[in-house]
Design a protein that fits this description.
By secondary structure, this protein is of the alpha/beta class. The chain is about 35% helix and about 10% strand. Helix 2 runs parallel beside helix 8 and helix 4 runs parallel beside helix 5.
């Protein structure tokens, strides 16, 4: 056996393959706090989907905690059951300081993509188009009927989804079941037909390897995590520059700058993608003026 064969591969790269504002999270925080859509009254709707237990609800709570400046729990989370804890379609608004207004973006949480008892893929497609009303209880056996009271027949622009976010547990990502990959791809194709931008969030990155657990700033230096992201990108088609690793709040009682930095980096790009999409749709809906005057 040669010397190279017994030598383990280094866990950390000499330089991070992606850089973020570790020491200046306030810049990203102010971007999020100051964001305002070009159209008055417009809001960005961000739909989170993915396997059960991946951390969709925890991500929403983590974002709210950062923007409120304290730990906050609104979306209920269960860390025991492997099945989806979210049963109903929920919209989460985040109040601004003073509680007199809300941020111009909302999150939608849905039932997880379980193999046999998860959310019906057609319900996700209806959600993308704005046809699902808040409070609808998901039925894994059948999609929402047009005759149901929770079916929105005339969705407004604010009812429709502007960014689709696939939330993935990085610590248990592989091997991915073929059915799960198929469901994610199916939802992606519908979103692509609607020209909705798509992002992936990798949660629980601190559980991927001890180097990240010891120091979250190593997240972009760990080759094994980058490889997971590249493999997931190859499986479902989401580009690497649209995949963001984060660590949600789940055990802390105080906010931590490094945790905030990763989440804010992801949130900033999600908002930018959604704003670009809305502005593009707005431009395409404007009538063409062929006047020569």
């Amino acid at each position: 056996m040669g010397a190279d064969e017994s030598k383990p591969e280094p866990q950390l790269l000499s330089e991070p393959w992606r850089t973020i504002n570790w020491g200046d999270k306030e810049k990203d925080l102010q971007y999020v706090k100051n964001y305002k859509p070009q159209t008055e009254g417009q809001q960005l709707r961000i739909l989170l989907h993915g396997p059960a237990g991946a951390g969709k609800s925890s991500f929403i709570n983590s974002v709210q905690s950062i923007l409120r400046g304290r730990l906050y729990v609104q979306a209920l989370v269960d860390r025991i059951s492997s099945s989806s804890f979210t049963r109903k379609f929920r919209t989460y608004k985040i109040p601004k300081e003073g509680q007199q207004s809300f941020y111009p973006f909302v999150f939608n949480d849905i039932m997880g993509l379980e193999i046999s008892r998860g959310v019906h893929v057609d319900d996700i497609k209806l959600t993308l188009r704005g046809h699902v009303k808040d409070g609808y209880k998901f039925d894994p056996e059948s999609k929402l009927s047009e005759k149901d009271g929770f079916y929105n027949r005339s969705p407004s622009s604010n009812d429709k989804v502007h960014v689709l976010v696939c939330v993935i547990d990085a610590s248990t990502l592989f091997p991915m079941k073929d059915e799960t990959v198929k469901k994610i791809r199916d939802v992606r194709m519908e979103a692509s037909d609607l020209e909705i931008p798509q992002v992936a969030i990798f949660t629980k990155v601190d559980e991927v390897c001890p180097e990240i657990k010891a120091d979250l700033k190593n997240v972009y230096k760990v080759q094994s995590l980058k490889s997971k992201m590249e493999q997931f990108s190859a499986y479902v088609g989401i580009p690497m520059n649209c995949i963001f690793p984060v660590r949600n709040y789940h055990e802390e009682i105080n906010l931590k700058s490094d945790v905030d930095s990763l989440i804010l980096s992801a949130l900033k790009h999600i908002i930018r993608f959604g704003d670009d999409y809305h502005n593009l749709k707005k431009s395409s809906d404007m009538p063409m003026n062929f006047s020569t005057e």
